[in-house]
Amino acid sequence: MDERTQLLQNKLILITGASGFTGSHACRYFASIGMRVAAVVRDEQGHAGLGGVTYHRCDLLSYEQVRETVSRIRPDYVLHLGGKNSVPESWKDPMLYMESNVLSVLYLLDALRDIPACRTLVVGSRLSGPSLSSSYRPHHPYGLSKTLQKLVALSWKQLFDQHVILAEPSNLMGPGRSTGFCSLLGGRIVQEEREGGTPPFRVSSRQERRDFLDVRDAVRAYAFLLAYGSSGEIYQVCSGQPRTLEEVTTTMLNLSGSRMTVEWGDNPTADSTAEVIQPEYLERIGWVPLYPLRTSLEDIIRYYRDEAKGGD
C-alpha cells in the first residue's frame, strides 16, 4: 500500500455509482488499501463479492433513501461517482441528465450536513463550463448538467462549510465496459474478430486531440485528493499528454491485429490544438500515472475478448 494513503486505512468510504465503470474499480482499489467500502447501487443483486465491500441499495433520486442511507452508514469519506455521462444520450433525455447529475449531488450533500467531519469528493467532468456567467454557452445537456453539479457542490461547501472537493477527470479508459471512445473501439474490434462484416467504425476526426487516462490511475488520484485535497478546490485528473484519435485508433488496431475498417470523419469543430492541462497538484503530492497508453489499450482488448469467451 502507498504510504501516502495510509491515513485512509480502516476508514469507512461511501461510493456512489459503485456498479459503474469507475465505481467498480474504485471499490476494488479502496478495499485493497484497507478501507471499509460501502458501495451504493440501485440493485444489490449481481455484484461479485469483494472483501471489505458491502453493497447498499439506494436510489440517488430519492431524497428519503439518500438521507436514510447516509444516516445509517455514517461514512468518514464519500466518493460521488453516481450519475449519467453520455453526451449523445443527454440529447435524447436531457431531464434525466439534470436529475441524475444535479439532484443526486444536492440530496447527497444535504444529507451529509449531519456528518460535518466527512470529506466528500465530487467527480465532475472537463466538459462542464467554467461558470454560469452570462457568457457561458453549453454545448450539450450533459455539459450543462455537470456545470450545475459543480455549482451546487461549491455552493453547498460555501453555505454550510462542508468538506467538499471536486475532481475533473479527462477521458478515462481501461478494462471494463464504458461509453468512452477506447472502450467502444475495443468492443467493436472484438465484435469484428468474432462475427466479421461489422459496419465501419466511425471516428470524428483524425487530428482531434484528447487526454486519456487509465481509470485505475484516476481512482488512485481520487484517494490522494480525499486524503490531501483542499475543500472548495477543483483538481484536474489527467495524464497531461493529449493524443490524437488517429494515434489511439491505430495503436489499438495494431495491438489487436485487427483489419477492421475505420471511417475517418472531417469534423470542423474537432479540436486539434487542445489545451495541455497538467495535474500539477497531484504531481506535487507524489501521484503519477502507472499505466502507459499501450498497457491500457491491451487490457481493454483482453477484457472484451474474455467477455466474449464467457458468452460462448
Automatic annotation (TrEMBL):
<comment type="similarity">
    <text>Belongs to the NAD(P)-dependent epimerase/dehydratase family.</text>
</comment>
<dbReference type="InterPro" id="IPR001509">
    <property type="entry name" value="Epimerase_deHydtase"/>
</dbReference>
<feature type="domain" description="NAD-dependent epimerase/dehydratase">
    <location>
        <begin position="13"/>
        <end position="238"/>
    </location>
</feature>
<dbReference type="Pfam" id="PF01370">
    <property type="entry name" value="Epimerase"/>
</dbReference>
<protein>
    <submittedName>
        <fullName>NAD(P)-dependent oxidoreductase</fullName>
    </submittedName>
</protein>
<dbReference type="InterPro" id="IPR036291">
    <property type="entry name" value="NAD(P)-bd_dom_sf"/>
</dbReference>
